[in-house]
Amino acid sequence: MRVRWAAATHPGRRRASNEDAFCARPDLGLFVVADGMGGHVAGEVASRLAVDTIEAVAERGDAAAPDDRNCTLAERRLQAGFERAARAIADQTMTNPRLRGMATTASAVLIAADATAIGHVGDSRIYLHRDGVLQQLTHDHSWVAEQVMMGLMSAAEARQHPWRNVVTRALSASDAPEVDLSPLQLLPGDRVLISSDGLHGVISEERIAVVLGAGEALERTCQQLIEDANGAGGPDNITTLILEIDVP
Q1: Which of 10, 32, 68, 86 is surrounded by the most beta carbons within 10 Å?
Q2: For the whole prediction, is pTM greater than 0.90?
Q3: What would the pLDDT profile of 201-248 be if each residue is shown by its tens digit?
Q4: Cα(57)–Cα(118) distance, rounded to whole angstroms?
Q5: Domain range 3-245, its CATH number among 3.30.2020.10, 3.60.40.10, 3.30.428.10, 3.30.70.100
């Protein structure tokens, strides 16, 4: 499967530093976005450590042991990467007290020879844009997402709520990660967007769909999404990573 990709990241208009990190390894079929938490330095360390660890596990081809979920090999490789990333964060917090409490989200796509899979923890997101329709493939592990699911809050209200950055799952030193894993069937012409919440936390899915479907080059599409997020206030770090499938 042939894949083109582009990525862009920006600290946003209200942050002095950028705690997002990303990885694009088309040779491995691996694409990851992570959004660090824990304040300046700690958040940057957590996100970069998670991305680097997931990449290293993919390079080695390690995989979690099979279980009763009948996961594909690609899913088990992502599971192994996320588990090792959490352990790496725990090891760092034990040796450096300044980093205690750090954590990160992570959303990843792994395109393997046998199957494609996504793995996800936190409130970064993976979207599929196909035939003009945008579909969110991941579920946010956040307090506001739970309120939206229960019908207690609208998506627009969630984007403005003061607790919108409170996540209920992350890669951290505290617990073994509970990773959402699922297979993904990709078709020619599909675009896949992996983004930190600095994008979808302020920009509507309707606008994201318009930008992805405009037919612009991937690099320009990434930049347009960041410009839109900054135009809406840019309250957080913004990362966009876009894949395009089977481009001639």
Answers
A1: 32
A2: yes
A3: 899 999 999 999 999 999 999 999 999 999 999 999 999 999 999 866
A4: 15
A5: 3.60.40.10
